[in-house]
Amino acid sequence: MNLLRLTKYLLMINFKDFGFLFWTVFYPIALIAIFMATTSNIGHESLSDIEVAVDKNYEYGMILDQIDFIKSEEMTEDAAKNALANEEIVGFVTSDGNLIVENSGFDSSILESVINQIHQTSLLGISPESFNYDANFIKSTDMDIAPQVVMYYSTLAMISFYTIFTSMELITSMRPNLSLMGSRFSASPFKKSSYIIASSIASLFLGLLTCGLVIGFLMIFYQDDLFSNFPATFLIILAGNIAGLGLGFIIGLIPNININVKSVVPVVFIVGLAFLSGLMGPGLRTVLNQKLPIINELNPLAHVTDVIYRVNLMDSFEGYWTAVFYLIGITLVSCIITLVALRRKQYDSL
Amino acid sequence: MIVFKIILLHFWKFKWFIIPLALTFFFIAAMFSSFSDTDSFATQELNVTVVDQSQSEASNALIDYLAKTHNVETTDEFNRKELEEAVFLAEIHGAIILDQNFEENLATGEPAVEVIGDQRAAANTQLETELSKFLMFANAQINDSGSLDISKLDSALTDTIEVDINSDETSGNEADYNNVAAYSNFAAYWLMLFLMLSVGNLMSEYNQSEIQKRITVSPLSSTSNAIQVFTSQFIVSFLAVLIMFSGILVLYHGHLENVPLTRIFLAMILITVFTLAMQFAINALTTNRFMVNGLANLITLGMAFLSGIFIPLELFGDTAQKIAEFLPLYHYTELYRVPNTSWSEVIPSIIILLLYTVAFMIIGIIFNNQRKSKQS
User: Fold this and answer.
1) Beta pairing class for A99-101 and A91-93
2) Is the pLDDT of residue B123 over 80?
3) Which stretches make up the ABC-2 type transporter transmembrane domain (chain A) (predicted)?
4) For residue B327, what pLDDT band results from cuts at 50, 70 and 90?
5) In A, which residues are within 8 Å of B125 by CB distance?
6) Long-range CB contacts (< 8 A, 24+ apart) of B251-258?
7) What is the pLDDT of residue B355?
8) Please, which of A74, A296, B147, B228 could form a disulfide with A302 given CB 3.0 to 4.6 Å?
C-alpha cells in the first residue's frame, strides 16, 4: 500500500511540473507532427521521362522514340550543349552514337545503358529476327518503399528511452553529494528500495503514456496502418522503457557533476543513438550498416526501431526476442552497477 | 570580470559532452564524404543482392556482368523477407532472384529473373534496363545459333560507347561542393544543439533567483553583468564555429575549389548569434531544465527538418516548402546554396537572419525585465 501511495505522489509531482509535461507529452507529439509534415512526400517521387537530344545524323534515333521512358528530339550539338548546361535535357547523342551528359547520375546512367544496348546489338552479329522483343524476361516485384516510416519508428524508439531522464533524476536526487534531498535521504531511515521501485513504476507509467500518445497520434493522422501487430509493439516499447530506466541509473551515478550539466548527457546520447538508427532519414543508417554494422548492432535504439517495423510491416519476428533480451540485459547490468555503487550509503554506515 | 570567468569555467564542465559530440560529428561527416577526383562520367553504382538458385554458366555470366559496374552481393540462400526488408529500408537498390530454371527460361523467353525493387525509382529502371539487355542478347544468341557463347556476349557487352561530360568544371567540383554543403548543413544543426543545450542549462542555473538576488546586491552593474555574460557566451560560440569551420578545411582539403568558404563562415557566425539571441529569450522565460532541454531538442530538430537540413526541400510538399522559407535555418543554407552567386543575391538572407536575431533579443529583454521586476 505504501508503495502504491508513494507511486501516486511521485506521479502527481511529475504531472504538476509543466517542464516535465512539456518534455514527455508536448515535445514528442510536436516532433512527430513536424516529421509528418515534412516527410509526407518522400518515397512518392516517380521516374519522369528522360529528355534526350539527338543529332539528326544518328542512325538509330527512331529506336529511342519507341522507348517508354525516353523523350527525344533532334538538336544541333551547340544547342544541345546549351540545353545540357541549363539542365533542360539529360544527354545528347552525337552522330557517331556517343553520348554527352551534364553530370553523372541515375538518369545519365539509364541513358548510357540504352545507347550502349543499341550500339552493342550491332556488335553481336546476330540477325534482327533472332531478337525476341516481345519476351518478358523479368518478373518485377514492386516494393512500395516508405523511408519516412523508419523515421516515425525511430522517433517512437527514441521516446521509449525517455525514462532515462526520470531514472537519472531519481538517482541524482538520492546522492548525498549531488542534491539536498540526497543528503536528507542518507541521514534518514527511509527505505531506499521502496523509493527506487515506486519511482521506477511511476516513470515507466509516464514513459508508456508518452509512447501511447505518439502511437495514437500516428494511428489517427497517418494514412497507412503503422501498427498492425500491437501486442508485439507494446512489448518491445516496454522493454525500451525499462532499458531507458537502467541507462538513466548509470548516468545518474556520474559523480561531481550537477544535474543541469548531467541532464545534457541523455539528451545528446539519445538523439545520437536515434540518428544512427535512422531518425534523420535512411541515408546515415544505410551508410553505417554497410560500413560499420557493429554500431547499430550495439545500438539499443536501432534494435527497437528494427523490431517495430519488422513486426508491423514485414510480419517478421526475426531478431525480436534477441532485441527484448538485449534491452533487459542492459537494464540488469545497469541495476547491478547501481546497487553496487549505492550500497553502504545508508545513514548508519556513513 | 568575475562573471565572465565563472561562465567560461561553467562551459568547461561541458567538455565531456562537447568532445564526443564533435568527434562523432566529424566521423559521420568523413564517412559521408565521397570525393570525385575526375571530371569524367561514371555509371551510377547500384547496390544489388543476387540470389543465384541456378548456379549455371549463364547465371554466373550475368552476375559477372553486373559486378563490373555495380556493388553485387551474391547469396545462395533465398530469404524473401530479408530481401524485401533491405529494399524497403533502401539498404539495396534491388534484389535479383535467378530462377532454378534460369537457362531453360532464358532459351524459351519465359521470365528467368525476378527483381524486387521500388518500380517508381530511377535505380530500378537502370537495373531492369541492364538486366533486360543481357537477357535479350543471351536469348538472341540461343535463338540464332542454338547455344550461348559467353565470351562473344561478354566482348559485345564490354564494348561501350564514349560518354563525355558537357562542361569540364561541373562533375568533380559539384560533388565536392555538395559534400561541403551537406557538412555545413549538419554543422548548423550541431552548433544550434550545442549552444542551446550548453548555454540553456548554464543560464538556467545562472538565472536562479538565489544567484540573481546575490548579483542584485553586489556592486556589479547590470550593464557590466550583461556584457560579461554575452562576451563569454560569444567567445565559446565563436570557438565552436571555428571548430566546425576548421572541420571543412581539414576534411575537404584539396577539394575546396568553387566552395564559397567566406559565405559559409559568415552563415555559421550568423546562425550562432541568432541561436544565442533565441536562447536568451528562452532563458528569460524559463529556468526549468526539462523545458530548456525539450525546447532545445524540439527547435533544433524541428527547424532542421523543416528547413531541408536533413532531407532535401524538393521532397517536401508545397505547404512545408512555404513554411521553410520563413525559418532562419533556411536562410542560413541560402547563403551558400548556389556556389557562384554574388553577395547582392544573398543580402536578403543575411538581413532576415539579423532581423530574427534582433527580434529575439528584444523579446528576451522584455521577458528578462519582467522576470527581474517579479524577483524584486
Assistant:
1) antiparallel
2) yes
3) 19-339
4) very high
5) 47, 69, 106, 110
6) B251/B26, B251/B29, B251/B30, B251/B33, B251/B183, B252/B33, B252/B176, B252/B179, B252/B180, B252/B183, B255/B35, B255/B176, B255/B179, B255/B180, B256/B176, B256/B180, B257/B173, B257/B176, B258/B169, B258/B173, B258/B176, B258/B177, B258/B339, B258/B340
7) 96
8) A296
- Specify the pLDDT at position B35: 47
State whether B156 and A123 contact (CB < 8 Å).
yes
Indicate yes or no: CB of B166 within 8 angstroms of CB of A107. no
SS3 B134: helix
Closest approach of A122 to chain B, Cα-based (Å): 9
Nearest CA in chain A to B300: A31
Judge whether A180 is closer than 8 Å to chain B, CB to CB: no
| A212-241: average pLDDT | 90
Residue percentage of chain B with pLDDT more than 90:
21
Residue B24: pLDDT band (50, 70, 90) is: confident
Using one digit for the tens of pLDDT, what is the confidence trace for A17-56?
Answer: 777 778 778 888 888 888 887 776 665 555 668 888 988 8
| Contacts A–B by Cβ distance under 8 A | 307
Where in the sequence of chain B do the CATH 3.40.1710.10 domains occur? 47-158
Q: What is the pLDDT of residues B192-248, one digit of tens each?
A: 988 898 888 888 888 888 888 888 888 888 788 888 888 899 998 999 899 889 988
CB nearest to B126's CB, from A23, A46, A113 = A113
Those of residues 262-321 in A touching chain B at CB distance below 8 A are 263-265, 267-268, 271-272, 278, 280-292, 309-310, 313-314, 316, 318
Could you tell me if A34 lies within 8 Å of chain B, comparing CB atoms?
yes
Q: Which CATH number fits domain B47-158: 3.40.1710.10, 3.90.1150.10, 3.30.70.270, 3.40.1000.10?
A: 3.40.1710.10
> Which pLDDT does position B342 carry in this prediction?
82
Residue A345 has which C-alpha cell?
550509503
Q: Do B166 and A291 touch (CB under 8 A)?
A: no
Three-state secondary structure call for residue A258: coil
